[in-house]
């Protein structure tokens, strides 16, 4: 192991540790409020690939550069997804907080090669069957219902009352869950708890209930298939088992719900606080597309993604990456890499961001298009229904969730003229 100058390290890190004395802990107040500043500092001090420490001082590499993230995600033969390759497993405690993200599961997320192509192909075919116009109509209906529930009060907290609920209900509708039923509403709530637990919530119990309800849905659709994602996965010639479909459906639902919720809320924040957009907000549609795309560049919902594991010793960004090392994909840092934006001006009209990742394991087509339908419909419908929407607190009072993985507000209070129900 060597430090950033190439000189031998004098520390005594755990075996296989990629980090050295200047490894940066991933966490703290800087990540909560100003991660972009931290990324700039790390890039200046360490280059495009920085040694970092995960929870419990577990070493890993954070890939900060746009070309480097693109390279990692395009070369599965060097940087694989099966986390069982990790050389740090002997140092991982049973209660490690990141285990839900890196512990191997028999889902599409951790498959490789032909097995990944088989599983991802089933998801792609199932999602391609979603009519985007029908999805937009359903999202608008969901949005209208949610807005009606708080429109008469003149105020709302949009994260919980709107941004989280809409994509959860929409993706469950795509999967064939009956809208408005008690168990669907319970599943929406359990999804929120399992992905974004608040004080007093039990995310493990909620995740178990999600798995049980999705298994029940799969069994129902095997008996009575319909025009939905679950049924199309069951009927696919690839012949996935019920257990495989449950795992992959949970992956699809989780990927659609929280990132899309944060995309919606981060876009609303931009529209309500940035003077470039404020003059057009009341029109509803004028600047929504620009704001949605700018958020993917500057406040992308998935900041960092863990991860990839080196299949063999290799070089990346001037670093020696050892076989089994963990690499965290710094999607937010890569999107603001000064190599691609040398004048520090991010062109919102450009769509070459890495917010949906890249390569074989990127968000499967057409999932980004479906997420765009959800987010765009959510924002446009809200602004059309409540055209005088304003932030309910000072902009400086808005706070970001204490997560290095997701970029989202703790809350988005707003005020507006009360509307008749």
Automatic annotation (TrEMBL):
<dbReference type="InterPro" id="IPR002397">
    <property type="entry name" value="Cyt_P450_B"/>
</dbReference>
<dbReference type="InterPro" id="IPR036396">
    <property type="entry name" value="Cyt_P450_sf"/>
</dbReference>
<protein>
    <submittedName>
        <fullName>Cytochrome P450</fullName>
    </submittedName>
</protein>
<feature type="compositionally biased region" description="Low complexity">
    <location>
        <begin position="1"/>
        <end position="10"/>
    </location>
</feature>
<feature type="region of interest" description="Disordered">
    <location>
        <begin position="1"/>
        <end position="23"/>
    </location>
</feature>
<comment type="similarity">
    <text>Belongs to the cytochrome P450 family.</text>
</comment>
